[in-house]
Records
---
Amino acid sequence: MPPRGRGPKDVGDCVNVKAQTKRFFVWDAYWDTARLQSFDLEGKPGAISALGQYWASVAQSLPQGASVLDLGCGHGAASLALLAAGSKATITAIDEANIDPVRYLPEKAAQLSRITFRPRVQMEELPFEDMSFDAVVSQFGIEFGPLPKTATEIARVLKPGGFMAALVLPYNSEAVQEARIALKQCRYLLTEAKLFETAITMLQAYHQAPPDVQEPQMQAALDQFRKTVEDAFAKFSEKEINVLSVIVNALYQVFGNRKTATEQDQIFAIESARTHLAHYAARAQDTARSAVDINMTALRGALVAAGIQLSDARPMQAQGYKGLVAYQLFGRKLAKPPQQQPAAGA
């Protein structure tokens, strides 16, 4: 389905998303589906079990009647796991995307109704009063925001002694490895291969040609297009052609409809496919860039500087899952923020 909102203006926007407003739209498209977990974890039961066990342990740490804030919530996977573990907390969940969990997960409507979802809210600009929450949680969320600002906001909205619990994306996880592979293909398709441009030119020529030469002309163009596709596939290994295969199949489907669809509709279909790919590329880029290194250096530093003392920071593994599922973090807000070191020469 076409993503809501406007798409990137050009290929530069597609593969190097810089503006926060553009981030909104590319993640809108991601959550315009009936997914609960990020990164296709639904099909990995070992990972789902490990995540559930973690949130069950966090639920046990919540005080009676706790108020909880879920950052980068998506469709509420972490919040639902807390409730499933028996938590009676009051949960507010925010995401910068235009999320609508009940619409896409109606079978979970009863559980989701216990959570207050707030779309279009940025982690680095939380619209909540100081010391509003007993706990802040996040599952594959906080690492996607600007770390120093996000950490400062987490500390600001936490009550004294309140805690932060988070699962963050490791640099060597399956999700990140797949994102890097996908991004390589996306960049090639969007900036080098010219398959979209070639397809549009072929269809324009077909629809504008006299009826008696349309098919012979198109068959000749298709023969040349197949050679271009073969050259494109040759640039990647068999394990690196998933995105390329999807796009090529989509273009051939458009070609196959040439006798029944209008020129305008076919060109729109190709442009829509290119926009979908551009959004996918931006998400893959965001995922690869946001992944956390083994020492969690930047994340640890931002949290400690904001006044959150970490008591747990370790990797999470799961049966049947290659690499790490997540790094798990747990820390409490200090009663007093750490003293800032005086500047040199002061």
---
Amino acid sequence: MNRPFTALTRRLALALLACTAVACTGMGKSPKTVLVAGATGQTGMQIVRHLQQQGYRVRALVRDADKAREQLGADVDYVQGDVKDAAAVKAAAAGTFAVISSIGARGRDGPDRPEMIDYQGVRNLVDAARAARVRQFVLISSRGVTQADHPLNRMFGNVLAWKLKGEDYLRASGIPYTVVRPGGLLNEPGGISDIAFEQGDTPVGTRVLSIPREDVAIVCVEALRHPEAKNRTFEIHRLEGPPPSDWQARFAALRPDPAR
């Protein structure tokens, strides 16, 4: 009389063992792979860490794979290349679920000037993501990109103007996207204070609006987890108060970008 119960118990035990063997990742499903461009930068390293904490597989497009491995560890798939090289970027994006870009120019002149990184590099990433049919592209841009007279444009080779052109290319691509525009970036712990979400790129005047790099990374990773973040452009900065707990509500409160 106890045989059906015993058989059921055995099946449940076997299922539990199987789940344990694959670390309970969807009963054998492989984790989703996210390509991170700019992974060895200060914000990019935070993105890699939080993606791994959320169970994603990370692929990093890096210029020096050996050096990157020293920074990020062995549990990352490395593709050696440069965002200015369209072929290398296309190879890196193949088979990925999503792309997160935290790239930025290195100086106002030279081969890594804003035009070549913040625009052409982003453009190469977008083209590769479209070819790979990724499900989402998260782009870290900057507050102030719509303000042509912003001091950063005069200081750093029109860096904000080129970032805006990169944003516009992504928005027109047809790829589901999220554009994150942080204020001044801080090398401080994140996840311990509130985050303001704004839209419209309103000039801030004399106010100092900043945010820890880790909080920027958290926002980018949460954007992958919530469909409400798709096709939205917004600014973020740190606020006093407890950290966000309902990310779905935060993203849902944002206006979708106008259709193109």
